[in-house]
Every structure is written in structure tokens, then in C-alpha cells.
Amino acid sequence: MSSIQRTAVITGATSESGIGVTTACRFAREGWGVVILDLDGEKSAQVARRIGEECGVPAFGHAIDVADEASVAAAHEAVAAEVAAGDLPPVGAVVNIAGITSPVSFLDTTLELWHRVMDVNATGTYLVTRAFLPQLIENGWGRIVNMSSVSAQRGGGVFGKVPYSAAKAAILGFTKALARELGGTGVTVNAVTPGAVDTNIRVGSTPEQEAAIARDIPVGRTATTEEVAAAITFLSSEDSSYLTGVTLDINGGSHMH
């Protein structure tokens, strides 16, 4: 444990086939401590415990509703207590993955759905970042990686639609503005924009739709969650020290700009 220097805090990381769990596992394999924050606190703890045992790193899981300020504060306090007790190394990376989709058309989008998609994706990214950022600045080193989407760049998709695209575009603006504000602090802020990924977040897509998506990608297939996790851990590493405000596309060439 003495060689472990930093902890990665990852939201939205309990789906075994999802980007979040894959990312948590990759951080752990690279020697980071891991904290998993998700709505299901019990599942978060179970997944974290498994990753910790398999990789020999400290790992904890807590419940969080990223769209609720009090819930975010409680999760942050729990992590801060674990760091203070010496159970975790200091937090070095915050990875905002938690999100929900909006698979209905614009005219079928209720105000309630609009607010919920914005709250979880955009406001959640803001609240979690705000909670953990002061300690990163105090430590003089930190990485914030935000999950956006190719939908923010080209508009919509099989599962994206208008609220999702708008929320993910907001995350890109948030990333760039915060990166500029934090210049010189040692904390970088970057975003990843996956295209189609082999994950169960593509709610409502049919095999035919997924095949059509793959045909439209120059490399001829969708991304794996491991490929997205590799990008996230790179942006959280020492090697990415001169990258901030970057939008890293992971789409196999489906969107070029």
C-alpha cells in the first residue's frame, strides 16, 4: 500500500458492463486507490470491495445522487474521512461519468425529463467537481475528467436526442471554462466524448440499429469500454500534464472536426 500515492473518485460506476466499472478497474490496476460513487450505495461498496481485493488497492464505495447537493456533500465527507484516517491516499482524480439518457423525441420531452437529464449530467458534474476541487487545489495537483458524448458535437443519436445532447454540450463548455480558470494551479480539466460504445447505456437501441451504427464508423466497430477507460486514465496521469481544456474524441472516426 505504501506505493499508492493517489485516489481516483469515479461517479456512475456500478454497472459491470459499463465504462465506470472498467475505468475503476483500470485505475486500480495502475496502482491508484479507488472510490466508487453511485446511487446504489450497497452495490458501490460491493464493486469497490471486489476491485480492491483483485488489485490489492484500497477501494471504497458510497451512495450518491449527483444531482442533489446534500447527497454530494455527504459522499465527499465520507471520502474525506477515509483519507484523513489513512485508509485512502489523497484524491488525485475526479472522473464524472454518472449520467442518464433521453431516448425520446423533442416533442415528447417533458419539462420534468428535461430537468432530470440536465440535473444528472450537467449539474451533477458541477456539484461533484465543486465538492472535491478545493482539496486538489490545496494539494497542487489534480485531474478532473468529464464524460461528454459525440452527441454534444453532432447532435442526437440513437439514445441521445435533444436533452442529452444539450447536457453533454454543457459539460464541454464547463470543462473548457474551468480549465482556463484553474490554469497554474496544477489541476487540469479535460473531457472525453465517446461515440458508440459496447455498453448497456444504449437503452432502446435494436441489433439492427447497432449494426447500422457500426457500418457508419470508419474503423468498422463500436468502442470497447476498455478503450474509453484508457483515455480517461491517460488524462488522469502525469503524462497528460500539459493537456487541459481538451476534448478527447473516442469515436473511431465517426465524427471528425
UniProtKB/TrEMBL annotation:
One of its GO terms (biological process) is fatty acid elongation. This is 3-oxoacyl-ACP reductase. The keyword Zinc-finger does not apply. Pfam families: adh_short_C2. Coiled coil: none annotated. InterPro entries: NAD(P)-bd_dom_sf, Sc_DH/Rdtase_CS, SDR_fam. Keywords: Oxidoreductase. It comes from the Bacteria. One of its GO terms (molecular function) is oxidoreductase activity, acting on the CH-OH group of donors, NAD or NADP as acceptor. Belongs to the short-chain dehydrogenases/reductases (SDR) family. The keyword Ligase does not apply.
